[in-house]
Amino acid sequence: xxxxxxxxxxxxxxxxxxxxxxxxxxxxxxxxxxxxxxxxxxxxxxxxxxxxxxxxxxxxxxxxxxxxxxxxxxxxxxxxxxxxxxxxxxxxxxxxxxxxxxxxxxxxxxxxxxxxxxxxxxxxxxxxxxxxxxxxxxxxxxxxxxxxxxxxxxxxxxxxxxxxxxxxxxxxxxxxxxxxxxxxxxxxxxxxxxxxxxxxx
Length: 201
Known about the structure:
The chain is α+β, with helices and mostly antiparallel strands.
């Protein structure tokens, strides 16, 4: 199944925020992208607002509809607030943690690193981007992949973000998933309750 590989700035403009990270081409405007964007100023319905939030999160984490739906069902079956559990499950994915550690400049690039067998979990190669990490697991770069230019460039250029739920040794290219993050520790601008309301219809 295909993933979106088109212009990311266009998608970011659609949601009114640079969801893929810093973008020199992103310019926030109060109308949608496209030739006729300035002429389509109809009020968004409640359903439209909820759908837009879900689509934003799907693009942000790089999930397809079926994957996202399955993850929501999993979150719904857990104890706790469904929307918050959903975000915690998304943040616990291996590709997201590789991105958070700074080994890749984007989640898409992190997903590729995992798929191409450059990443290990507890010393064993894992090539499943959606792999859900458990507290205490060690995530690192495969020994023969440590010289990869893409990884070294990312570590060089990525700003250091400290997350209380992650430990990372830049020199050794290895980190520890200490625990699943709390909702307050997830920095993305997401209104998860809108997604819960959408799936509850």
